[in-house]
Amino acid sequence: MAVWAGVVTVPATAGAAPAPPGVDDFYRAPDGFESTSPGTILRERPMRLASYSALPFNAQAWQLLYRTTDLAGGPMSAVTTVILPAGPPPPGGRPLLSYQMATDSIDPGCAPSVAMQPGSGVESFTTQGQMTFVGQALQRGWAVSVPDHEGPAPRVGTPREPGYVALDGIRAAEQFAPLGLSGCRPRSDYGAIRAAVSRPRGPRRCSPRTRRS
């Protein structure tokens, strides 16, 4: 047993590497998704978390496939990993942190939804290392959303689109009942490198919908 960023971990058992987008059918949007609103959850599944491919987190996690918007303004699907820490929420309700990891690669195996799983490859080492920050948020009792902000077809330096993915990932997380994120509550996001500079301005106050501008 070990402690990683304040989160109790246990050694992982060896297993197959997670399937990347393009191979895993979970990432494929269902027919008709184009008619849904941004942030609509299209598919969900539970998952296991691990740091550096071998240290699982003592937290519940799910992958959400949801509707978002691409650079041209058309419908697109994306995946976010949502995480619920063990224990009761902090006084005043559970905050939500949207964390956009630095990937520095268009390799599908470096997508956060792949890199955060047990058995992920060394090519995603940079992404895996950022689980430290996720662990710190979980230790504070925060829920966390980690979107694959580069989208289903990763590109370098794409403006706006990664921000749409991140903001619609917040919408999806707030709709996901197991997280218990109903009503007006503190929300924050943290982006690294391209994710930060690509993010459109979001809401400055609590409102029924997450706003883009």
List keywords for this structure.
about 210 residues, alpha+beta, six-stranded mixed beta sheet, two-stranded antiparallel ribbon, disordered N terminus
Overview in brief:
The chain is of the alpha+beta class and 213 residues long.
What would your notes on this structure say?
With 213 residues, this protein is an alpha+beta fold. It is 17% helix and 25% strand. The chain is globular and about 40 Å long. The N and C termini lie far apart (46 Å). Residues 1-14 and 201-208 have low confidence and may be disordered. This is Lipase. One of its GO terms (molecular function) is triacylglycerol lipase activity. Residues 194-213 are annotated as: Disordered.
How does the major sheet shape up?
Answer: 6 strands, mixed
Terminus-to-terminus distance: 46 Å
Q: SS-based structural class?
A: alpha+beta
The main sheet orders its strands as 3-6-7-9-8-10
Q: Count the beta strands.
A: 10
The radius of gyration is 16 Å
Share of helical residues: 10-25%
Alpha plus pi helix count: 5
Q: Which consecutive residue ranges, at least 5 long each, have pLDDT under 50?
A: 1-14, 201-208
Strand content: 25-35%
Q: What string gives the helices and strands in order? A: EEEEEEEEHHHEHEH
Question: Shape, please?
Answer: globular
Mean pLDDT figure = 78
